[in-house]
Design a protein that fits this description.
By secondary structure, the chain is α+β, with helices and mostly antiparallel strands. 17% of the residues lie in helices and 27% in strands. The strands form nine sheets. The protein has an eight-stranded mixed β-sheet, covered by helices on one side. Strands 10-9-8-23-24-25 form a six-stranded mixed β-sheet, with helices on one face. A hairpin with a 5-residue loop joins strand 32 (628-634) and strand 33. Helix 4 packs across helix 5 and helix 7 (368-379) runs parallel beside helix 8. It is globular. The structure holds fe (ii) ion (FE2). Fe (ii) ion (FE2) binds next to loops.
C-alpha cells in the first residue's frame, strides 16, 4: 500500500540536504557555470542570469548567433503562464518512483517550488515538494514504497501558476510482450519547431511500455535548457504517461563527438579528440540532472574526474531488465593514443591501414567500472525474464557513406567499433545474458548481428533511425555493391550478409534503411524520404521471441502494418543473441522449478560462460570449449550447483 507520510519527511530531508531550497537559490546569478573558459561563459546564456531582460545585443558573436539566442528567449517569454512546467518524465523500478518536472525558465515573481500530487480515492493528494534547481530549472522527486500494482494519475504543480498531469502506469509484468519505442537524434532543423505531432501520434498508436531516447535530444550545444525543453515539449504527450529512458550522447553535452576519458577536461582540440568534456563539470552535471535524474539510482554513483556524475544502471520494465549504459563517458580518445591517419584524428580512410595499430593496450570503451556493472547485471535475474542493453551508439561501424553520398569513410572512431578489444569485451558480456541491444546515434537504421570470434556468434543490435534526419545523413553502401558472404539472409534488401567493418570487426547486416537523397540540403528539402522515424522492439517473455520493427516518420494515412521500412520487421529469438557453436552438452538435467536461471562457469578461469533464464523444467547445457565446468541454477541468481564436468 502507498505510504505517503512514511516516506515524505525522510525523502524531503534527504533531498534538502543535497540541494539548496528555493529560498536560498539565486535564480538570476549570471555565469552560472563560472567564467574560466569561453565554454563556461557561453553556457546556457538564454536560461541564466536576468535572461528575460536580455536583447540580441547581449549575445556576443555574429548576427546569426544573436538571432539564434534571442529566438530562444522569445520562446521562453511567450509561453503561456500555465505552461510553465514544460513536461514530466519518470521511471519506476523495484518500488521507487523517480520523476522530473521540467520547468521553463521562471520569472522572479513566479513560484520556485514544485509539488507532486497523486490521485487517490478521487482526490489529489500532495506527496512531496521539491525546489526548482538552478541552473536547469528542473525539480526532482524520488518516492519510495510506490504502489506499482495500479495506474496512478499524477500532477506536478508550480504553486497556483501551472500544472502538468500524467499517469504513472502500473507494472507491465502481466503483459506477455513488452514494447519499446527506440528513438534518437531529434534534429531541430525542421519545419515544425515546437511540435512533433506526427511522431507522437504514430508512437501513441503503438502504445509502447517504454520510450527510449538514445541521445541527441538536444542539438543546441551551448543552450541545453532550450534544447531539452524543446525536445520534451515536442514529446510531452507520449512520455507523460509511460516510463522514459534518456541516455546522453555527444550533442546533449555540447559536442560534435565525445570521448569522455572518465570525465577529463577537454580543450576542444581537433573536435574534442583530445578527450573529455569541453563544457565545465557543472554544465555536464546540469545536463545529466535534467535528463537522467528520473532513471533508477546509479549502480555505483561514485563521481569521476572533475566531480562529474555517472548514471549507468538497470531498469526493469514488466520483467524485461534493461542495462542503461554510458558508452561515451569512459571511452579513450583518439588524439595521442593512436597513430594519426588523416586530417581528422577520428576518421580513417586508408583501406591499407593496420587494424591492430589502433587497438593498443590500455584503451577503454565502457571502462572497468561499467564492465563490472554489466557482469553483475548479466548474472542477476531478479524479476527478469529477458535482458536488453540500451546505449548511445553501435558496437561496430555499420555505415559506409557519411554526410554525403560522395564521402566514403572506412572507419569512424566515434563508433563503438573502436577500440576493438573494448568492443569485444562488452559484446561478450551481453552474449552471456543473451541480451539484445538497442541504440541510436548513427541516424541510419540498421539491424546487425555482431561477430566476436567468428561471424554470427554475438548479440544482435537494432540501431534506430534519427527521429528527424536533417543534420547528417549516413548510408550502408558496400563499395562493390555486392551482398556479403555467408549463408544468405532472407531479406528483400540487396546488401545483407557477412561483412567486416573498417576496424576489422565482423558484422552480419540484416537490414538497413538508407535515405534516398544525397546530402544535408537535400535531406532538409525531402521530408518523406530521408530514412528517419523510429524503431519498435517487442520482447515476448513467454516465448522468448523478439521483433524489431522500423517505421518512417510520416505515414500518410496508412496503418502501421503498411508503412515499415523495407527489410523489417525482423524476427528473432533470445537464443539468437548467442551464436556460439557447442562442442558438447551436459546430460539433460531436470530442474526443481520451471524457467530457472542457469549459469555455466569455467572452473579454470572462474569466468561465467553464460547466465540466462531457460524456458521449461529441464536443460541440456551447451559447452563451447574443452575444460572443467560448473553448472548452477536458481530462481533469481544461479546459487545452487547442479553438476560439474570436464569436457
Ligand atoms: Fe545524432
Amino acid at each position: 500500500m502507498f505510504k505517503a507520510k512514511a516516506f515524505l519527511i525522510p525523502a524531503l530531508l534527504a533531498v534538502l540536504s543535497l540541494c539548496p531550497a528555493a529560498a536560498q537559490t539565486n535564480y538570476y546569478a549570471p555565469f552560472a557555470f563560472g567564467t574560466d573558459t569561453g565554454y563556461a561563459r557561453g553556457a546556457d546564456e538564454t536560461a541564466t542570469g536576468r535572461w528575460f531582460e536580455k536583447s540580441e545585443a547581449d549575445f556576443p558573436g555574429k548576427a546569426g548567433e544573436k538571432k539564434r539566442h534571442f529566438k530562444m528567449i522569445k520562446w521562453f517569454k511567450e509561453r503561456p503562464l500555465d505552461k510553465a512546467i514544460g513536461f514530466c518524465l519518470y521511471t519506476v523500478d523495484h518500488g521507487t518512483l523517480k520523476l522530473t518536472a521540467q520547468c521553463f525558465p521562471l520569472l522572479p515573481k513566479e513560484p520556485k517550488t514544485v509539488t507532486l500530487e497523486v490521485m487517490r480515492g478521487g482526490k489529489w493528494q500532495a506527496i512531496q515538494e521539491q525546489p526548482v534547481q538552478y541552473p536547469g530549472w528542473s525539480a526532482h522527486f524520488r518516492v519510495e514504497n510506490w504502489d506499482h500494482s495500479v495506474d496512478t494519475p499524477y500532477r506536478a504543480r508550480l504553486g497556483e501558476l501551472a500544472s502538468f498531469t500524467g499517469l504513472v502506469r502500473k507494472n507491465a509484468s502481466d503483459k506477455a510482450t513488452i514494447t519499446v519505442a527506440s528513438t534518437s537524434c531529434n534534429s531541430p532543423y525542421d519545419e515544425s519547431v515546437y511540435e512533433r505531432a506526427d511522431l507522437v501520434k504514430n508512437l501513441r498508436s503503438l502504445d509502447p511500455d517504454l520510450v527510449f531516447f538514445a541521445g541527441d535530444q538536444s542539438y543546441h550545444h551551448d543552450e541545453h535548457t532550450y534544447g531539452w525543453l524543446q525536445h520534451g515539449v515536442q514529446f510531452a504527450d507520449i512520455i507523460k504517461d509511460r516510463p522514459t529512458v534518456c541516455l546522453l550522447d555527444d550533442h546533449d553535452y555540447g559536442h560534435g563527438n565525445l570521448w569522455g576519458e572518465g570525465g577529463k577536461a577537454s580543450q576542444g582540440t581537433k573536435g574534442a579528440t583530445d578527450g573529455g568534456f569541453m563544457y565545465p563539470a557543472s554544465f555536464v552535471n546540469m545536463v545529466e540532472r535534467c535528463q537522467t535524474f528520473h532513471l533508477p539510482d546509479a549502480f555505483d554513483p561514485t563521481p569521476i574526474k572533475q566531480g562529474i556524475g555517472v548514471y549507468y544502471t538497470a531498469l526493469n520494465i514488466g520483467g524485461v531488465s534493461f542495462a542503461l549504459l554510458e558508452d561515451r563517458k569512459f571511452k579513450s580518445a583518439p588524439l595521442g593514443n593512436i597513430p594519426e591517419m588523416g586530417p581528422r584524428p577520428d576518421h580513417i580512410k586508408d583501406p591499407a591501414y593496420d587494424r591492430k595499430s589502433v587497438d593498443t593496450p590500455g584503451l577503454s570503451l565502457l571502462g572497468k567500472r561499467q564492465l563490472d556493472f554489466l557482469e553483475h547485471w548479466a548474472t542477476d535475474w531478479t524479476d527478469a525474464q529477458m535482458k536488453v542493453a540500451l546505449s548511445q551508439t553501435a558496437f561496430c561501424g555499420a555505415v559506409h557513406l557519411h554526410g554525403s553520398k560522395k564521402n566514403r569513410l572506412l572507419a569512424d572512431l566515434d563508433s563503438n567499433g573502436w577500440p576493438q578489444t573494448g568492443r569485444n569485451k562488452a559484446l561478450r558480456i551481453l552474449r552471456k545474458a543473451r541480451a539484445s541491444h538497442l541504440c541510436g546515434d548513427q541516424h541510419l537504421a540498421v539491424v546487425v548481428q555482431h561477430g566476436i570470434d567468428g561471424y554470427r556468434d554475438g548479440p544482435i543490435t537494432f540501431t534506430n533511425p534519427a527521429l528527424v534526419n536533417t543534420v547528417y545523413g549516413r548510408w550502408w553502401w558496400p563499395e562493390d555493391e555486392k551482398p556479403g558472404s555467408g549463408a544468405k539472409i532472407d531479406s528483400p534488401l540487396p546488401w545483407t550478409g557477412d561483412y567486416e567493418d573498417g576496424f576489422g570487426n565482423k558484422i552480419t547486416m540484416l537490414a538497413y534503411a538508407n535515405p534516398k537523397h544525397g546530402h544535408g540540403g537535400d535531406l532538409r528539402k525531402n521530408r518523406g524520404s530521408r530514412g528517419d522515424g523510429f524503431g519498435i522492439a517487442r520482447f515476448n517473455k513467454t516465448t522468448g521471441e523478439i521483433s524489431f520493427e522500423c517505421y518512417p516518420r510520416f505515414w500518410g494515412g496508412k496503418t502501421a502494418a503498411e508503412v515499415q521500412y523495407k527489410g523489417w520487421p525482423i524476427s528473432l529469438k533470445t537464443s539468437d543473441n548467442d551464436g556460439r557453436k557447442p562442442i558438447a552438452h551436459f546430460p539433460e538435467i531436470k530442474l526443481p522449478e520451471a524457467n530457472m536461471v542457469v549459469q555455466l562457469i569455467n572452473d579454470d578461469s572462474g569466468e561465467t560462460v553464460y547466465c540466462h533464464r531457460i524456458r521449461g523444467k529441464s536443460c541440456t547445457a551447451p559447452v563451447y570449449a574443452s575444460g572443467s565446468y560448473t553448472l548452477k541454477a536458481g530462481k533469481s541468481t544461479a546459487d545452487t550447483i547442479l553438476a560439474q564436468k570436464k569436457f
